[in-house]
Every structure is written in C-alpha cells, then in structure tokens.
Write a structure and sequence with these properties.
Layout (H helix, E strand, L loop, with lengths): L5 H11 L8 H44 L5 H6 L11 H7 L1 H44 L4 H5 L23
Helix pairs in contact: 2-5
Length: 174
C-alpha cells in the first residue's frame, strides 16, 4: 500500500514549496536540499511499492493462467468452478477481463501516477535553485549590484590619475 495518496502529496507539495518569496531568497535556497531529500525518500518508497505490486501481478497472472488453462489445483476448481476449455490464443482475453487482475492493474496505475508525480516534484525542486539564482541576479541588476557595476571604479577629482602635459589633450572630461 502506498505511503500517501496522490491528493496527500499534492497538499504536501503545495505546503512545502509555495510560490517563491523574493524577500526570503536565502531561506528558500537553504530549504532546497531538505525538500529534495524528503521527496527523494518518498519516491524511493513509492517505487519499491510499485515494484512489489508488479511482482504481485506477475504471480497473479501465472495463477490465473493456470486456472483458465485447467492446470490449477483441483481444490481451486471446487471453490470456484470453471468449466470452459480456453484455447491459448484466447487466454489473453480472459486474463484482460479477469476482475482480480483488473483491480490490481488499477492499483498499479494509481501507484505509477504517484511515482510520476514525485519524479516531477523532484525535478521542480531541482529547478527551484535556478529560479532563485535568477531572482538574485535580477535583484542585483535592479539595485545596481550586478557584476559589471561592481567592477567599475568610481573616479572623483581627488582620485584622478596624474596626467602629463601631452596627455591632457587625450583626457576625457568627467
């Protein structure tokens, strides 16, 4: 059984990773590894559950194949009689229509959606760092702290370099 339902994961992600607040960039950046670790653990557990379900289905298909082909234990037929002769070519139709297999397939599909959602969540958590980096760059540019403006030396009259007499003609007035 899955750790959480898909709806639970939706709520959890909405709570853990809301819209990025521009005034909390450092705190948001510090949360990225924590969120990544949290959802990686959830995904690992959900993938294990998916694998367990797929193994369970393989065993169920084998059991049902034996049942429909008339090769199951006689006790099985006493509990649930099956008097038809199924040809190998028709077996897939019977397996696809089997209620037990359909119920397990439905559970496997639900579990696969959970794993897929957690994969997307992990990807979005990873992209969050790039979004935060872009916000920081935007704020630096906005407030004049970008790398180009930091490299420029402010020249005032008292900090002007000494010019020779012949260099004065080449000097640019500030």
């Amino acid at each position: 059984m899955s750790l959480h339902s898909l709806k639970d994961y939706f709520k959890m992600v909405a709570k853990d990773a809301p819209e990025i607040r521009r005034d909390m960039v450092a705190a948001e950046a510090a949360r990225i590894p924590v969120l990544h670790d949290k959802y990686l653990k959830y995904k690992g557990a959900e993938v294990e559950e998916l694998n367990r379900m797929q193994q369970e289905k393989a065993k169920l298909v084998l059991t049902k194949t034996q049942y429909y082909m008339g090769k199951a234990d006689p006790e099985v037929y006493k509990e649930k009689p099956f008097r038809l002769k199924v040809l190998k070519g028709d077996l897939k139709v019977y397996l696809d229509a089997d209620d037990d297999i359909q119920a397990l397939d439905k559970s496997i599909n639900r579990q696969q959606r959970i794993v897929d959602y957690l994969s997307v969540t992990l990807s979005e958590v990873g992209k969050r760092g790039y979004r935060l980096d872009n916000i920081i760059k935007d704020q630096r540019t906005k407030f004049g702290l970008d790398s180009m403006s930091m490299d420029v030396t402010v020249l005032t009259e008292d900090k002007l370099p000494e010019l020779d007499d012949d260099d004065e003609d080449d000097a640019i007035a500030l």
